[in-house]
Amino acid sequence: MGRMSNTRGGKMRTSSLTCFGVGDGLPCGDRHHASFLYRFGKTLILLDCGEPIDGSFKAGGLGYDLIDSILVSHLHADHIGGFLMLMQGCWLEGRRKDLTVHMPGAAISPVRQMMETALLFDELLKFRLRFAPLKAGRLIRVRDVRITPFPTTHLDGLRARFQKRHRGAFDSYCFLLESGRRRIGHSADLGSPEDLEPLLARPLDLLVCEMAHFTPEEILSRLRGRRIKRIAFVHLARGYWEALPKIRRLAARMLPDIPHTFAKDGAVIQF
Fold it and tell me: For residues 198 and 174, is the Cβ–Cβ distance under 8 A?
């Protein structure tokens, strides 16, 4: 399975994932909200900005110029709630390297307005901040890393219920991250296990998969027998997290041939 460290602030090697927050959307006293830092050699990509990412980043002793790009999968608060403080941290810590934030296109204007409201003016920043819309299947290149966003059905119910009355960003994405021969799938939030299919079309070195919006049996059945070297389960619903020993036994029974872990905040996963 390879070495996996749950030590907060653990040293990141050449290719690694640091789980800053693995909590679900409910208030969490024992888990932070969704935020994951991928390192591919010298390229670092932050995926989602759940709170308190700014504090977690600082506690890890990481420099604010390290992040090469940010991906925001969708606009639920547990995935973007720490974004403003992270930007304030980049300002006050003197970040100078240009930064591109990829997010659903309909969110860009409101997020820019939020920054204005929070007095985070472009003129204060010592770096150029750029927002770019995610588009299904359109490749994103961040240095030597190739990222492909795929749509999920996570927000389809909210879209059907509220789109006529509210101007919201109802798009949601999962991601395939590739560097050299490494292929990493990141589910973000799903509407159903079927949303994973674009990520599973070819073998994966690592799948980071949520377990909040359907039963463990549903997702484990979808993953059984797939060509995945290892799986890190994150974003467990509170009830599953509280019954983790039971969920571990179920996963061991249903995925006997795929090494897997249930990540905690601060986990550093090498791949």
Answer: yes
Asked if omega into 245 is within 30° of 0 (cis), the reply is no
Who's near 224: CB < 8 A, 6+ residues apart? 254, 255, 258
The contacts of residue 119 (CB under 8 Å, 6+ apart) are: none
* Sheet strand arrangement including 268-270: 4-5, 268-270, 15-21, 35-40, 43-47, 69-71, 99-104, 129-134
**Three-class secondary structure assignment of 151-201:** ECCCCHHHHHHHCCCCCCCCCCEEEEEEECCEEEEECCCCCCHHHHHHHHC
Instruction: Give the model's confidence band at 115: pLDDT under 50 very low, under 70 low, under 90 confident, else very high.
Output: very high
Q: Whole-angstrom distance between the N-terminal and C-terminal Cα of the chain?
A: 10
d(CA 225, CA 108): 39
- pLDDT tens digits for range 193-239: 999 999 999 999 999 999 999 999 999 999 999 999 999 999 999 99
Q: Which domains does the chain have, with CATH numbers?
A: 4-270 (3.60.15.10)
Mode of pairing for the β-strands spanning 173-179 and 99-104: unpaired
- Mean pLDDT of the region 167-190: 96
Q: What share of the chain is helix, strand, coil (3-state, %, to 5)?
A: 30, 30, 45
